[in-house]
Design brief:
Chain lengths: 1200, 332
């Protein structure tokens, strides 16, 4: 039978089968599994049908716990149902998984296995999530490659229907879920041949139905629970045979034969590695290589991990086996070994005891860990393990792939060992996220995969920054199926798409002798050599590398492509790599362009065609001189002034040498210093804002909107200017409060991302040339040195005395030092200005609980983090627990602070005679309602500590350890709308109801931004989001109104771009309120499809159309007999449609579903009117009681 | 009373044709114009630039920030198809033709010759009875001569005429150094009609924000004078039909323009201001006037006050302005 060859990734392969075989799909986004749900949703919304001709229903839930519950319900009601998840998501499903398995229900959960957060979160792949679910009673089936993902998704479904044991079908997150591979696509006939409709009817017949009612899910007592639990044994006993039968049937239909435990390698192997997941592919490649060289080694791939069939497993081992190394991609601290090792040990022991072990004696069994969080696992490491297995006493409980210099578990290996065959083209591309390199490479893989007989593989590595991020693409093309599940480590083609990478990375490190190097260069073929750094010249000459250059940005400009050089660089690759004949390649690229861009209009297609055509004329080979002449060296990664930890550890991560850092370099408990982002000078801005003091009106707006804290403002004594570098700008301060002082606005030139939002917001225009403002964007490279010296000097100017600042104003707040700086958030991010503002106002006494999401990534993703300290060493203390529990996590912090403050006060009262009554009284009665009060209290507490230090009394020592709690602390609970509106809403609601003094900041982007723009309950009606491809049909949830019904919660809805003064006031009032406060902050986002430079204008329009009215509800006003509700925005003056037309999330619906767009837009307009009426009524109410009534009255049912 | 006229070879029941405006954004509104008595409708202009811009914008924003960060490789679902071409416009032409019995004239503003040809064909295929070329174009390049600009008009006309079989009118700007010459060239090139004149969008300055802002102003009756003069001058000198547009608000305006030589009188601002029923009122007043002044048909008066037909042809020429000015100062 002829089957299509497709080049897809593991997630798509799983979703392809799952969508064909299910009726109800419940989903929730979590990396790296989100794409499976997205595919399913997209296909259903496009009307794609399953095998039985119906479109599967796809429903997004509020959490993975919710998805599992929904699936449980759907299964109990007889539907074929599935879900997709990973990591903590799978952990949230565990309670339901016990139930689903306990009730013998057929289903397959597809899991792209990912690390479970421990000392840190990691989005990357290992088996710790699956292992955490191994006691649920689910069967567990491991796929090792993209092809296997598709095949096993089907085999698992066939087996579960027959066995009635539910299955977790898992594959490695990223390595398999995101690896693009050419595979054979199963046909509907294949799928039909594997699925017995009679079994489906059996599944339905067990469904709950009032027509044949039963009770399922009883509560049982000690008398019977145990026996009832044992009833499932026969099903598990029968499972291995059923699974193998399904594999055999699949082989008959499709031709690929799988085994539960699959041996490959020398039939007389003495050393055998046991492994599951993608690592098995690398082992297989190594085993082939070593056996050809005469070694006797083998590999036993475990596909069926649960139930673990000892007999099947043992039988699969060759009788010659003497040493078995079991490799686990997980860590179980404190266990006698990792799970697979334990299963193997038990299986060998049990079969030895019962006499069925067919090996020549009891083998040596050792276990080891590899590949945690997608750590590379290469043939060199595999060989290291095989070599170690030769030892008389091989190391047990080892690790491979890292340098464990603490407990010395690691296995040595020779990194130079390689199994890469010569006939495989191995290409690496260094690009920027923004230049489209990855997209172009994905296209190239498709072209080669689908237009030639070559096998193709692509894997993409991204850094953890959301702006200016670097991507490295690893592509392989070869005549045989590719099993290299590791990064390209010996490249015969290297492309560098950005010139500045040459001074940042050793891009030719992996280039093999005789390879080709393609460089996007501003310098032509005759000039480029002199501009290359020394290490690049050296390698080109030494390795006899062929060098090609193109000025891709010039070609892109000339052909209307703007900054996107993807098509141009792709054309260069095909032109010089020789993968395809040139003519054929050009034709194929053009076909791909038509396919990719065709639906977006002829113009786009034509631009790309022009780019292809002009590329070849601008691509030149460089005649390489014989001598190295360059004096350009790689600059140091971080400044020599950086602290030791940054020098030794952080710098290694920044430079891309993190893999080489030993265990001893890592903090044992996940605790890291703050203030590290300042050392990572990313220099990603092409243009930076430069201040023109002659125009400036000193409003400080540029600073408050800056998402990266790279526009700084200080007022200072003019005397200090004596040491200023020449040209450093300053002006007299204009207003009264700092009369006679100097004022400077300065950019941090190497940290600025060049978003331009500061220039956009600047209200002061040059009177002679209105295009100029008080700050203007200018090219960064020529100004870098000068501005760097200015900025260094600026930082040395004293910080302002906080007691003198009018903090509840935009202007005043921006004189305060930001303690959140240079984050890796997106260019023009709408969230970070709020986070930064909080750090300015309260940072020196702030504790932050941060929900997982964008803010936890730009706030806490290594190598460097933006939270920092002031000159006194004080600053925000930050932590991220999980996604769902953040409100509770923050409440816990508050409870601890409150308790410790109370304890400190008790002890101080007790010790008053010893420390002095006056001091004790001063501290206990301190008014800390403003900066002056806090300053004073700090002075007193310091005095107290001084007095306590020499005291030996245990109470005094305890008080010393808690005395800092006597200074008011500010607990902040931060997160996005996915957390606050959906997954964490239950906890948030509970914390609001707790009455405790916590400040909750919801950074509302109206979608799950971090995972790629999935719909949340905060998504406005008519916006397109993932899981709402046809526009969100229902109105946004009104979190503010819900919170106000409590009456004792401070609630503010804010939008900095509409009213920054109200924003600052809301923060001040929320913090001052002695009870729960909720600030809901409109945060424009890259996921809105907007011009990020103009994000503040979008905020303004959101308020002006009534979509985002701003207000403050302050319960303290009730006590003063006033209306607690203040409406801060004016009556809507523009139509919702006008705001919507500024954002692609709304606009794309008018292009994809025009009729639906009209309908939803009209309803969204009604939403704004209704909302406004309610708020207007609230604003007119007299007292708090009336307000509550109005809110209650407003809870009318939604329009459908 | 015979109000009939012929425009672009089409027989129209009267000379009032709503010109390109938001009133043709939907079929309902066009139907109201027909019901009020419009004899044909020029649809709003299809702007190639806008289509291209929207497509580029959509592509840019849907792709912006993608493939950069491992957790969010994209931000939007992929739609099966996007309606980014002229389909919406073409579809409206089709629907208008189905719903109306009066002729529907498409209006097109292209930027590339490919666009002019392609979209013109699509508008014809959708059933448009004629096409008006809206050569909306502000030549700001100091290297571009007046002849270059005129040639561009000619090229567009040639290209479109070669591609479609329906009549083609061309809407002109009044800002040519030798309008009569250009009209002559267009006439020779086969223009079926000349529409006098295009009212350009004219930007304004916001003094508070120091920004250039769009500011759409409706025409005022005195603006009628410019097309009036040129219709009068060109009547009888070109084979092409003449449409007068700009400043036509009242029955008197219609009569004046017809006398100057216009085959049709196009209305926009007056209809936006007073609504479609204004057509009914104007037609009724025209009839009354004709009865009162004993005209039996519009044909009778068409061109009666053109430059060729008046006693003092120089009244339409530049000297007239000088005299007007001096008489003005005398009165003062």
């Amino acid at each position: 039978m002829k089957r299509n060859k497709v080049t897809i990734d593991g997630n798509e392969a799983a979703a392809y089968v799952a969508h064909k075989l299910n009726e109800v799909i419940a989903i929730y986004p979590i990396t790296p599994s989100s794409n499976m749900g997205e595919w399913a949703d997209e296909w259903s919304s496009q009307g794609r049908k399953n095998l039985w001709g119906t479109i599967p229903s796809v429903t997004e839930m509020q959490s993975e716990g919710g998805a599992a519950g929904a699936i449980h319900g759907a299964l109990q009601t007889g539907a074929l149902s599935t879900t997709f998840t990973a990591s903590q998501g799978l952990l949230l499903m565990i309670p339901n998984m016990f139930k689903i398995a306990g009730e013998l229900t057929s289903t397959v959960f597809h899991v792209s296995a990912r690390s479970v957060a421990a000392q840190a979160l990691s989005i990357f792949g290992d088996h710790s999530d699956v292992m955490a679910a191994r006691s649920t009673g689910f069967g567990m089936l491991a796929s090792n490659s993209v092809q296997e993902v598709m095949d096993f998704a089907l085999i698992a479904q066939a087996a579960t229907l027959e066995a009635r044991v539910p299955i977790v079908h898992f594959f490695d997150g990223f390595r398999t879920s995101h690896e693009v591979m050419k595979i054979e696509e199963l046909t509907d006939d294949d799928i039909r041949a594997m699925i017995d409709d009679e079994l489906i009817r059996g599944h339905r017949s067990r469904a709950l139905s009032p027509d044949h009612p039963v009770v399922r899910g009883t509560a049982q007592n000690p008398d019977v629970f145990f026996q009832a639990r044992e009833t499932v044994n026969p099903y598990y006993a029968a499972f291995p045979a059923i699974m193998q039968k399904a594999m055999d049937r699949f082989a008959k239909q499709v031709g690929r034969q799988y085994k539960l435990y699959e041996y490959t390698g020398a039939p007389d192997a003495e050393r055998v590695i046991v492994i599951m997941g993608s690592g098995a592919e690398a082992v297989e490649e190594t085993v082939d290589h070593l056996d050809k060289k005469g070694e006797k080694v083998g590999l036993l791939k475990v596909h069926m991990f649960r139930p673990f069939s000892a007999s099947h497993f043992v039988k699969a081992l060759p009788p010659s086996t003497k040493t078995i190394a079991v490799l686990d991609r997980t860590k179980e601290p404190g266990a006698t070994g990792e799970p697979l090792y334990m299963d193997v040990s038990t299986s060998i022991t049990e079969t030895f005891i019962d006499g069925s072990l067919h090996l020549n004696g009891f083998p040596k069994i050792i276990g080891g860990r590899y590949g945690l969080s997608s750590k590379e696992f290469t043939p060199a490491m595999v060989k290291g393990v095989f070599d170690m297995m030769k030892q008389e006493k091989p190391k047990n409980h080892f690790t491979v792939g890292i340098n464990d210099d603490v407990t010395h578990t690691s296995v040595e290996f020779d990194p130079a060992f390689s199994t890469e065959p010569d006939d495989v083209i191995r290409a690496m591309f260094y690009g920027l996220g923004a230049d489209g390199t990855v997209g172009a490479n994905k296209n190239s893989i498709k072209i080669i995969g689908e237009d030639t007989d070559f096998f193709a593989q692509g894997y993409f590595v991204y850094d953890s920054k959301k702006s200016g991020s670097t991507t490295v693409s690893h592509l392989r093309f070869g005549p045989r199926p590719i099993h290299s599940t590791y990064l390209v480590d010996s490249a015969n083609f290297v492309a560098c798409h950005q010139w500045f990478f040459l001074e940042k990375f050793d891009v030719l490190k992996t280039a093999v002798p005789g390879s080709t190097f393609l460089l996007n260069s501003y310098f032509g073929a005759d000039k480029v050599w002199e501009e290359l750094p020394r290490h690049i010249q050296e390698q080109i000459i030494k390795k006899k590398i062929k060098l090609y250059v193109i000025d891709a940005y010039k070609v892109a400009q000339a052909t209307g492509m703007g900054g996107r050089i993807n098509t141009i660089m792709q054309t260069c690759f095909f032109a010089i790599s020789g993968v395809l004949p040139r003519e054929k390649a050009i034709e194929a690229i053009k076909n791909a362009i038509k396919k990719t861009y065709g639906k977006k209009g002829d113009k786009i297609v034509q631009q790309n065609f022009d780019a292809v055509d002009q590329t070849l004329a601008n691509l030149f080979e460089v005649k390489v001189p014989a001598m190295v002449t360059s004096k350009i060296e790689m600059p140091p990664v971080v400044s020599e002034n950086a602290p030791e930890f940054v020098q030794k550890v952080t710098a290694g991560m920044i430079a891309g040498f993190g893999d080489a850092l030993p265990v001893s370099a890592m903090p044992a408990d996940g605790t890291y210093p703050t203030g590290t982002a300042q050392w990572e000078k990313r220099n990603i801005a092409l243009e930076i804002p430069i201040w023109d003091e002659s125009i400036c009106i000193q409003c400080n707006k540029c600073a408050i909107v800056c998402p990266h804290a790279t526009i700084r403002i200080k007022v200072y004594d003019g005397e200090t200017l004596k040491n200023a570098p020449a040209g450093f700008k300053s002006m007299d301060y204009k207003a009264a409060e700092y009369k006679g002082m100097k004022y400077t606005v300065q950019v941090a030139p190497e940290d600025c991302t060049g978003c331009g939002i500061c220039v956009d917001i600047c209200p002061a225009k040059n009177k002679s040339e209105t295009r100029l403002k008080a700050i203007n964007m200018e090219a960064q490279p020529p100004l870098r040195e000068r501005e760097r010296s200015y900025y260094e000097y600026f930082l040395s100017l004293p910080e302002i005395d906080r007691r003198t600042v009018k903090v509840d104003s935009v202007k005043g707040s921006q004189f305060l030092q930001p303690l959140f700086e240079y984050s890796g958030a997106c260019l023009g991010c709408g969230e970070t200005p709020y986070v930064k503002l909080a750090s300015q106002l309260f940072g020196d006494r702030m504790i932050v609980a941060n929900a997982t999401g964008c803010s936890s990534i730009y706030g806490g993703n290594l190598p460097t983090t933006p939270w920092t300290v002031n000159p006194e060493g004080r600053g925000p203390a930050w932590s991220n627990s999980l996604f769902e529990d953040n409100a509770e996590f923050g409440l816990g912090m508050r409870l601890a602070v409150d308790k410790h403050t109370a304890m400190a006060r008790e002890m101080l009262t007790q010790l008053a005679p010893q420390v002095g009554d006056e001091l004790a009284r001063a501290i206990l009665n301190a008014d800390q309602s403003d900066e002056a009060g806090i300053y004073e209290q700090r002075v007193w507490v310091e005095q107290l500590k001084k007095k306590l230090k020499p005291m030996n009394d245990p109470v005094a020592r305890n008080l010393l350890s808690l005395a800092d709690n006597l200074v008011k602390r500010s607990v902040w609970i931060m997160g996005g709308d996915g957390w606050a509106y959906d997954i964490g809403f239950g906890g948030l609601d509970h914390v609001l109801a707790s009455g405790k003094n916590v400040n909750i900041l919801v950074l509302d982007t109206e979608v799950y931004s971090n995972t790629g723009g999935q719909m949340s309950k905060a998504t406005p009606r008519s916006a397109v989001a993932k899981f709402a491809a046809g526009g969100k049909p229902l109105a946004k949830k009104d979190l503010g109104l819900i919170a106000m019904t409590y009456g004792n919660v401070y609630v503010a809805q804010i939008a900095m771009g509409y009213n920054d003064t109200q924003t600052v006031r809301a923060f001040m009032e929320a913090e001052a309120y002695d009870g729960p406060s909720l600030i809901i902050a409109y945060s424009h986002c890259i996921a809105h499809g907007i011009n990020m430079t103009k994000g503040m204008s979008n905020q303004k329009a959101a308020v002006e159309c009534g979509h985002w009215p701003i207000y403050r509800f302050n319960p303290t006003l009730v006590g003063q007999g006033k209306n607690p509700f203040v409406l801060d925005s004016k009556e809507p003056k523009i139509k919702f449609e006008q705001y919507a037309s500024m954002e692609a999330r709304f606009k794309m619906l008018t292009k994809s579903h025009p009729e639906q767009a009209k309908k939803l837009s009209a309803l969204a307009q009604e939403d704004t009117q209704k909302r406004w009426k309610v708020l207007e009524r609230l604003a007119k109410a007299d007292t708090g009681t009336d307000v509550k009534k109005v809110i209650e009255q407003s809870h009318a049912p939604q329009e459908h | 009373m015979d109000l009939k006229t012929s425009y672009l070879g089409m027989q129209l029941k009267n000379p009032i044709v709503p010109s390109a405006s938001p009133l043709s954004h939907n079929v309902d509104s066009m139907k109201r114009l027909e019901d009020a008595g419009a004899s044909a409708i020029v649809m709003y202009s299809l702007f190639e630039e806008q289509i291209a811009h929207e497509a580029e914008e959509l592509d840019h924003y849907l792709a912006y920030g993608t493939e950069s960060f491992a957790e969010s490789l994209t931000y939007f679902p992929e739609a099966a198809e996007y309606n980014v071409g002229p389909d919406e416009y073409v579809d409206l032409v089709r629907k208008a033709k189905e719903a109306l019995s009066i002729p529907v004239i498409g209006s097109l503003n292209g930027i590339t010759s490919g666009g002019w040809i392609d979209y013109a064909k699509k508008i014809q295929e959708a059933g448009a009875d004629a096409l008006e070329l809206n050569v909306y174009y502000i030549p700001t390049d100091p290297n571009l001569s007046g002849t270059d600009v005129e040639d561009r008009y000619l090229e567009v006309l040639h290209a479109v005429k070669r591609s479609v079989t329906i009549p083609v009118a061309i809407k002109l700007s009044p800002f040519f150094s030798s309008l009569a010459h250009l009209a002559h060239r267009l006439d020779l090139a086969g223009a079926d009609g000349l529409v006098l004149f295009n009212r350009f969008y004219q930007p304004d300055i916001d003094l508070d924000e120091l920004e250039v802002v769009p500011n759409v102003l409706l025409s005022t009756p005195h603006e009628l004078r410019l097309p009036l003069r040129w219709v009068a001058i060109l009547h009888g000198r070109v084979k092409a039909s003449l449409a007068a547009t700009t400043g036509i608000h009242t029955a008197e305006d219609v009569l004046k323009m017809t006398m100057a030589g216009a085959d049709v009188t196009m209305m926009c601002s007056a209809l936006l201001k007073h609504g479609p029923n204004h057509i009914t009122e104007v037609l009724s007043t025209v009839r009354d006037w004709m009865v009162e002044h004993e005209y039996v048909s519009l044909e009778q008066m068409r061109g009666s006050m053109s430059q060729k037909s008046v006693a003092d042809p120089s009244a339409f020429e530049r000297a007239n302005y000088m005299r007007a000015l001096s008489s003005f100062s005398t009165h003062k």
